[in-house]
Each structure stands twice: as structure tokens, then as C-alpha cells.
Amino acid sequence: MAPRRLPDRRVEDPPWIAGDSEDPGDPGRVRGPPAVPARLVVAADGRRSRLAGLLGNEAESRPNERAALFGYFRGIPAPADNRSVFVMNDRDLACSYPLVDGRTELVLFAEKSRVEGWRGADGRMQEFLKYFDGLPDAPPVTDAVPEGPLLGYGDYPSLIRRPVAGSVPFVGDAALSLDAMSGVGCGFALLSAQLLAHAFAGRALDAEGVRDGLDDYRQRFEKTVLPHAEGICGDSLVDKDEATRQRMFETICGNPELSQKYLALTGRMVLPAEFQRAFMRGLMARGSGAARK
Ligand SMILES: Cc1cc2nc3c(=O)[nH]c(=O)nc-3n(C[C@H](O)[C@H](O)[C@H](O)COP(=O)(O)OP(=O)(O)OC[C@H]3O[C@@H](n4cnc5c(N)ncnc54)[C@H](O)[C@@H]3O)c2cc1C
After folding, report:
1. Which residues, judged by CB distance below 6 Å to any ligand atom, belong to the binding site of ligand 1?
2. What is the fold, at CATH topology level, of the domain defined by 66-153?
3. What pLDDT score was predicted for residue 22?
4. So what's the pLDDT on residue 241?
5. According to the UniProt entry, which residue ranges have a biased composition of type Basic and acidic residues (predicted)?
6. Whose CA is nearest to atom 44 of ligand 1?
7. Rounded to an integer, what distance in angstroms lies between the CA atom of residue 60 and that of residue 154?
């Protein structure tokens, strides 16, 4: 599948961002300290990017049907080899991360409807621990002592912006901030910064160099990052039925090569299309194996 291209709306940008603009309506000027001339300004100002607002780079918002709750605890025994444990439970994902000094972080990404009734700080904590207590493969939480209140969010839609607005490239969460369950935020922040650096390597920062560098960055971003974003936004919809999900994971786990590919996909080392091709081959091999029996 060809990578999706976000609609291109060019904004006439100034070559530099200045403070104390005399024109408060000027979208390229930020009020603040005195003017700093720059040949390239990069927007790396996070999910609520103010630069995106100033440059009219509106975010496309995609629904995320899971809420997230997390907290830090003592008294939870670390599993063998100090391994993190991830339990897929129905449509939720429960994670346990052993940390240093006997602390453990518990994280739950759960369907919103499941946690909506968990009211009040104490009630929420009780329900949260009860949830982990009921998971067969999670470490025991009977003696868990919270180190503080539960943190998290009830609604965290994925936000996707154009990687370039006018003459300003966007990197990290300013460009795309996805469902935290995917665990890609810091990785994609570094990846997008690296793509930008590669796009500008060896180019002069004159008008032509900047234009070509920005175009190169946009293409790299759309080819490398957006296909993952599509898959992650799909996962956030939580609408796969249990039988389909079970079949998918049986196919993946029953085939060592496919298991490696799946790990590479979730580590964002291969593109979704490459995994999908391998998955289709795995499905066919499974089908023909079953037919032979
Ligand atoms: C609950 C939760 C759990 C997460 N878990 C993970 C995880 O397990 N793994 C993972 O990889 N990611 C995770 N993330 C996402 C991750 O935190 C972000 O993707 C990552 O921090 C993005 O980095 P960034 O540098 O683009 O943006 P940010 O970290 O938001 O940094 C932007 C910076 O710009 C600064 N800034 C903003 N405006 C201005 C201004 N006008 N002038 C100067 N500075 C400004 C801000 O102060 C901030 O320091 C999680 C997010 C949440 C909410």
C-alpha cells in the first residue's frame, strides 16, 4: 500500500521567528525574547505544539478507545530474569515493569468503558489492583504498596500533523503523537529528528537547499513513519473480535519466522506492509498444513 500523503497546504513563512512582533496576527512570529535570525526553524514543541497553531498546521485527530492508568508500587516480586510482563486480556493490555530498588510500575491500557466506573482516587486504586490480581500471568500484587496516586488519562486521541508547514519541519510529538500503548513516542521523536538530519545532510541552507531538504524530509516521514501510524490508529479502535485476534496470534506464535517479523514490526524495524506479506504467507502455510492433516 502506498504511504498516505497528508494534504499539503503551503503557508508563507518568514525566514526567521521573531519576538515582539508589531503585527500580532503575523502567523510566523512568536511573542517573547528579542528576534533571533535563523535559516531553519524546527518545530519540536510537543503534542500541543504552539508553532503548529501559529502556522495553521492543524492536527488530524484519530480516536483512541482505550484509557490508560499507571502507578508505581513496592512489594511486587520481580519475575524471573527481572522481565517485564505484558498480558493481553480481552481488549486490554496490562503491563508490569520491574524497576530498580524493588519498585515496579504497573500500567493498564483498558477499554474506556471498563474504567469509567472506577471512581475516586482510592476506589480507582482498589479496582486497578483487583484487575491485576485477577490476571493469571501477572506478578502477584497482594502485598503491593502504592508509592503515590494512579496517573493516566481517560481520553488521548492520536494527533497527526503535516511534517512540514511552509518552511518549518515538525518532529516528534509536534508532528505525530500516537496512542501511548504503542510505545513509539520517544522512538518516533528520535526517528523523525534523524530523518530530518538525513534530509538536510550536505545541503546548503539557502532557499533552494531548504526547499529541497524540506521536500526530502516530508517524503521520508510519509514513507517511514505514516504507515506505522495507520496501524497504530487501527489498533486504538479496539474493534477486533476475540476469535480473529486469537487466530492472528496463534498464526504468529506458531511460526518462528513470523514471530521474529512481528517483533520487528512492533520495534518499528520493518514496515507494516512487509509484516502483512509475511503474515499472509504464514496464514497460507497454516491452511495448507491443516489441510494435509
Ligand atoms: C502517559 C504517557 C505514557 C507514555 N509512555 C511512553 C513510552 O512508554 N514510551 C515512549 O516512547 N513514549 C511514551 N510516551 C510519549 C512520549 O512521552 C512522547 O512521545 C515524547 O516525549 C515526545 O517527545 P518530544 O520531544 O517530541 O515532545 P516533548 O517531550 O513534549 O517535548 C517538547 C518540549 O518542548 C518544550 N516547549 C514547548 N513549547 C515551547 C516553547 N514555546 N518554547 C520552548 N520550549 C517549548 C516543552 O517544554 C517540552 O520540553 C508517553 C506519553 C504519555 C502521555
Report:
1. 44-47, 50, 68, 172-174, 180, 183-187, 189
2. D-Amino Acid Oxidase; Chain A, domain 2 (3.30.9)
3. 38
4. 74
5. 1-13
6. 45
7. 19
